[in-house]
Amino acid sequence: MPIRRTFTRRKVLLGAAATAATAALLAPAGSAVAASGQADKAKPTVVLVHGGFADASGWNGVIKRLQHDGYTTIAPANPLRGIPTDTAYIASVLKSVKGPIVLVGHSYGGAVITNAAAGDPNVKALVYVAAFAPDTGEQLGPLLDKYPGSLIGSSVQPVPYPQPDGGTGTDLYLTPDKFRAAFAADLPASTTRLMQAEQRPFAAAALTDTTKAAAWHTIPSYGLVAGNDKAIPPALERFFYQRAHARKVIEVPGSSHVPMISHPGVTARFIETAANATG
Fold first, then answer.
1. How far is Cα 203 from Cα 186, in angstroms, rounded to an integer?
2. Best exposed site among 83, 103, 147, 190 by fewest CB in 10 Å?
């Protein structure tokens, strides 16, 4: 009898342990974490929008750092066909994202996110990186002349292209001899030669298109000033960010128009500052 009682008790204990283990395996992953009080709040998705004369690869150094820190990151190809077209396209990308978004725009991409984020409740922060942040009714061309210092006007080459309706549009390219000085003076010449050859032009219409909505009126914004920007004057960037009542503004001294390439660590950390504030 003692042996039988011992055997029976052992079976009960082993059975209980097996049942508990099975329940743990079958329980939803989040339930155990929540019960322990160690649940991590989901990070927002970071959407990075490039500007003219560039493509999404300019964000590579930033993306690498954001992904390392656990952020889902999307860098769509901005069509660069003008504010109405580009706004509609980027807005469609935003609608495909589930959950909160930190929306980042560089240069002309800032104008696109300003329009595209309007009315989207998932966009929790706007981050402007050496970018335009126009208000409703404004055009980028006149804004670019608001302060001295931009070399863009003297560095572009217009190239006509056919439009689907039979009309003719105009693309703007930065010329080989002006690209580095106007766009990326703090990068090696060997790098900027490649960037110039691979540049994506943007439609000249983008400079005269009218901004239809300014999301920074209702969505918290953050601004990075490129201290030695020869494309968008630093004074104009400061004006935009001050007018938008940006929650935080930083300046990268000596940076050209592409701080996300020449200073990817600083840029990534600044984006994460905005992301951390969304919670």
1. 26
2. 190
